[in-house]
Amino acid sequence: MPSYDYPLNERIRTLLRVEDLFAKVLYHVEAGHEYSHHSALLTLLQILDVVDRAELKLDLLQELDRQRSVMIMLRGNPGIAEITLETIINEIDVTSDALRAETNKFGQTLRANEWLMSIRQRAGIPGGVCEFDVPSYHYWLGLSEVRRRQDFATWLKPLLPMQHAVVIILRILRGSGATTKLLAINGDFQQMLGGAKPAQMLRIEVAEDVVCFPEVSANKYAINIRFNVLESAQKPQKYEDNVNFTLTLCNL
């Protein structure tokens, strides 16, 4: 079932971007072809732009510590699977220790690599990393797949604790909140938001055979969902039929 996550604050927006970029990096590294490794490297450099915030590491550690405290309070609850709970607590402990062990700012080892930074600078120019622009990069792409994988392992190692922390936090966030079955009349839906603890993310799911997608505008008071259809890869148009969907208001 297709799902769409919509962040309601900048903190969750950053986590979703990191998750998306890492998924693409790891996929392309695993694919192995030099074109895939080209995409992996350029995406890895994009991660630097997203995580270039000194407080991100502190944010992740504080959230992991908070979630650990919540999980510990659930011990002994008959409605909670004990093995699953202990697995999550262990994952949080391992990831927190790895984050604390990494003393440098996220991405600092990559920023200290002059060769990677020269590629980053050229990557901002359309077609700027052609072989005649950066011969050393063309040479690197021509090295063996094993060698390129080794380089990626070196570059990614300091960042993996951050990626693991993001995965854990978003998994907990997506599993929070109650899911409601709703109907968008003529493709439109609006709902007022209330409660002492505002939602941090919306999660919308639609059936596989639904030929439209949601676009969301939201603030702390209300959410507006409009379903659109994309035909012939042209400008999206409003979907005029009713749409059954589920909505989860997620909160850590």
How would you summarize the topology of this molecule?
Blueprint: E1 3-7, H1 10-31, H2 34-51, H3 56-73, H4 82-101, H5 108-111, H6 114-123, H7 135-141, H8 145-156, H9 160-174, E2 179-184, E3 188-192, E4 201-206, E5 213-218, E6 222-229, E7 237-238, E8 243-250
Antiparallel strand pairs: 1-4, 2-8, 3-6, 4-8, 5-6, 6-7
In DSSP terms, counting alpha (H) and pi (I) runs of 4 or more, how many helices?
A: 9
Question: What is the alpha-carbon Rg in Å?
Answer: 21 Å
Runs in which pLDDT lies below 50 for 5 or more consecutive residues are none
Helix percent reads: 40-55%
By helix and strand content, what is the structural category? alpha+beta
Q: Could you explain how this protein is built, in words?
A:
A hairpin with a 7-residue loop joins strand 6 (222-229) and strand 7 (237-238). The two termini are 23 Å apart. It is globular, with a radius of gyration of 21 Å. It has two domains: 10-171, YacF-like (Orthogonal Bundle); 177-250, YacF-like domains (YacF-like), CATH 2.60.440.10. It is of the alpha+beta class and 252 residues long. The protein is 50% helix and 18% strand. The strands form two sheets. The protein has a four-stranded antiparallel sheet. Strands 3, 5, 6 and 7 form a four-stranded antiparallel sheet that branches.
